Structures are given as C-alpha cells and as structure tokens.
C-alpha cells in the first residue's frame, strides 16, 4: 500500500480531475465515476483515528429510489399488472440466477453482457439476462405446453449504462407471454393490444407501435448483400437504432460486422427510444426439452425503466404533489394525556382495514398534527378531545376544506368507511 504522502498526493491529483470535469460540465456518469475514485483514495488514507471510511455510492449502472420515485414506480407497476390480469394472465417467479449453460449461447453477441458468478458450491451460475430464457427453461422443465403468464422481476446486464436514458445494469422487466399451439396471429394480436392499453393508460403522449416480421428483415439483408451467416449479428445492430445515431449503427454494420459486403441505403436514424418490444420465439423451449418438443411462444416486454424516466420527468415539471403514503386518516388529539385513547382508536381502525397513522409523541400539539396532514397529503383527521370523549363522539375534519362532522364512537368504523368510500371514489 502506498504511504501516507503518496496517497495525499494522489488524492490531490484526483481532486483536480473531478474539479476539471465539473468546470467542463462533463456528464454526471463521468463525474460520479471520478468522484468514486477520489472517495476510494480517501478511504485508503482513513480518518484521524484510523477508522475505515466507506465509499458511499451505488454500484455503476444501479440507483436508489426515494419514496417519491417509488410512488411513481408503484403507480406504473399497478397499471401494467392490472392490464396483464385483465387479459387473464397468471404470474410465476424464477431464480435471479440460472445455471450458466442455460443462458450461454441464447443471446448471440450479447452473451458477453451476462454476469457470471463465482463457483460457490459446485455449480457454474450466471445472473439472468432477461425473463424469456428462464421462462422457456421453466416450460421445458415442467413439461408445460399452454400458459398465459406475466413476470415482473429484476434482470442484470454487464452493459455500459446510460442512466439518463433509462439504461441500467440492474433493472426490472415486465413480461407478458402466451405459450401454446393456437390459431395464427390471435395471441400476437393480443400482445399488441396489451402494449396499446398500457401506453395509453400511462398517458406518455403520442406513440407508434411498429410491427415487423423477421423474414422481411432477412429479405432486406439478402438484397443488400449480407451473407446469411451474418443475418443474426446484423440484426443485433439494427436493434440499437433506438439507442444510437444512424451513422454509428451504419458504421457498426458496414465496417465492423459486414465489411465491403452490403450496400445499405442512407436513411434517417430513429431518435425516440422504444418503451416496449416483443415477438415470437417458437424454437426456444425446444432447445431445452430433452426430446426437442417445441412450444410456440409469443410475448411482449414493457421497458419499465424508460417509462419511469418519462414519468419522473413529467412529475418534476408538474405542480401536482406526489403522495408517498396512502394514509387516509390521522388520529389526533386536541388536549394532553390522550395517548391511550388515540392508540385504541387507531388500532380499531387498523383492524377494520382503514389506513391510519398516529404521531409518535405523547402530547403532540394539534397544530403540529394538522401540519403533518398537510405536508404528507393525509386527507382526513379524527380529533379526540376530553369533551368529545364524554359525549361519545369523534370530530372528523377534512384537512383541505376544514369542514368538520361529529361521528358517534360506537359507529365510527361504519361511518368512516362510508365517508372514505365517497371521498376516494
């Protein structure tokens, strides 16, 4: 390990690198990467008492989500799950890692993006790259020939992240698939309908659903002079049109993958990223089945991270406040020494399935309790008072309008449930 003087000099140099990048307004990802290096150097130096200094950052290509962001994500997930269920899908789950041999060779050149795990117990494992291959393995292993399923889970790719555009190394996929032998194009049409319903309900703005047949694309490659053995590798470059400029895609196709063998036309690149994709994979299950039995499959995957990036930007520019809890009522008190009564009423409402909070303070001021409701968006507050308790009633206040009604304590669950039903309908 370098001595203290060398570390201090390295820290000084790295600090200058960070300051230069900030002055040049470099990308956030580049700055974060150099800041991480600076923090690692400082960690090696340690504190005055030799205490280990942790580098407090998320791993490259990952991120934390705060309560506001999670509220937006949950809204998106609920819309997607509701659509999947409306179409009669059931859900499954598979392990976050698979046997390495299950994933190897299924993704073409993208196989280099698979995260391999160290051998921890006699098995060579890899983190799942998507949810499709695990689904195909699940069908073959359990001899399932017909199923309509959805699966929402994290997947992992050892990619160069572009987090500002919703590309990460750890991210969710939301998949809907129909497996089974059915009359042509009926399941395919339902997949398109699902994409339309979800994007329409999310209200992302105008969108186009593009339908492609790989056989047509292969025909275009053949006309352009691409050798048959290079069709698949060229396809993986075409798929990058929503991530890269046309000139970069053209360069990769012509110069790197099919040099001097194709005469592609110059066309404008795609500038807007895709938020969903899908297609058929009729032969995948047969690759895993010992007897090679095929199960026709078609599916669609919703790009939750890109959708979330759009929704997050919309929330930032909107004046509408995002609620991070679903609390319906705060049980409050107007005088001191009513903690027991507050907790008793809170418990009764919890038992009735009503979403309730109480401040963790023995004698909170009424104003503080009302301010908590305004800050967090709690719409109603049930106020206990000495006189009200003697009369067997509770005051229920609408936080926004400040209107109050008196509810009989013995009937509060029924009456409050009726008010909440009316309020939230």
Automatic annotation (TrEMBL):
The lineage of its organism: Eukaryota, Metazoa, Chordata, Craniata, Vertebrata. Residues 4-41 form a coiled coil. This is histidine--tRNA ligase. Its EC number is 6.1.1.21. It comes from the Eukaryota. It is an enzyme of class 6 (ligase). One of its GO terms (molecular function) is identical protein binding. Residues 3-59 form the WHEP-TRS domain. It catalyses: tRNA(His) + L-histidine + ATP = L-histidyl-tRNA(His) + AMP + diphosphate + H(+). InterPro entries: aa-tRNA-synth_II, aa-tRNA-synth_II/BPL/LPL, Anticodon-bd, Anticodon-bd_dom_sf, HisRS-like_core, HisRS/HisZ, HisRS_anticodon, uS15_NS1_RNA-bd_sf. Pfam families: HGTP_anticodon, tRNA-synt_His, WHEP-TRS. Keywords: Aminoacyl-tRNA synthetase, ATP-binding, Coiled coil, Cytoplasm, Ligase, Nucleotide-binding, Protein biosynthesis. Gene3D superfamilies: Anticodon-binding domain, Bira Bifunctional Protein, Domain 2, S15/NS1, RNA-binding. Residues 61-311 form the Aminoacyl-transfer RNA synthetases class-II family profile domain. GO terms for cellular component: cytosol; mitochondrion. One of its GO terms (biological process) is mitochondrial translation. Belongs to the class-II aminoacyl-tRNA synthetase family.
